[in-house]
Amino acid sequence: MNYPLQAMVQLGVIPPVTFPPDSRYYSFGVQQYIAPDGQSIPYLQRRIVPQPGAPNYATVNLYTVQQGDRLDRIAAKYLGDPLMAWLICDANGAIDPWTLVETPGTVLAITTPQGAPGGTIAQ
């Protein structure tokens, strides 16, 4: 099975950087700030979280939260990698990931970047 992350790397959608491919910062570079005293201070480029339902993400599934669910397990099941839970957070506008699974019955959108194949059908 070809998971979204693997497909994005193979298609060249995600450029190579120092972060692992399953990190939400994977496609962001490290910038340098030169302080007044000449010291170079590295920092990450700003990451703008897309609005839920943004056109650059495709909903591949909907999942109804059950008692005891964990976001990493949901990501592993539907996206093939537990570290991709950040995609579910972004798709559902969550700042605090735990809020997504604290209420059974909550319906979560499972998304991938538009054009990336992957995801599984909810059972």
Model description:
This protein has 123 residues and is α+β, with helices and mostly antiparallel strands. It is built from three helices and four strands. It has helices at 4-11, 71-79, 85-91; strands at 30-34, 40-44, 57-64, 107-113. Strands 1-2 form a two-stranded antiparallel ribbon. The chain has a two-stranded antiparallel sheet with strand order 3-4. It is elongated and about 55 Å long.
The percentage helix is 10-25%
**Which parts are unreliable, with pLDDT below 50 for 5 consecutive residues or more?**
119-123
| Averaged pLDDT | 77
Separation of the first and last Cα atoms: 17 Å
Count, helices: 3
Please supply descriptive tags for the structure shown above:
123 residues, alpha+beta, 20% strand, single chain, 20% helix, two-stranded antiparallel sheet, 4 strands
Quick structural gist:
By secondary structure, this protein is an alpha+beta fold. The chain is built from three helices and four strands.
Produce the secondary structure layout.
Elements: H1 4-11, E1 30-34, E2 40-44, E3 57-64, H2 71-79, H3 85-91, E4 107-113
Antiparallel strand pairs: 1-2, 3-4
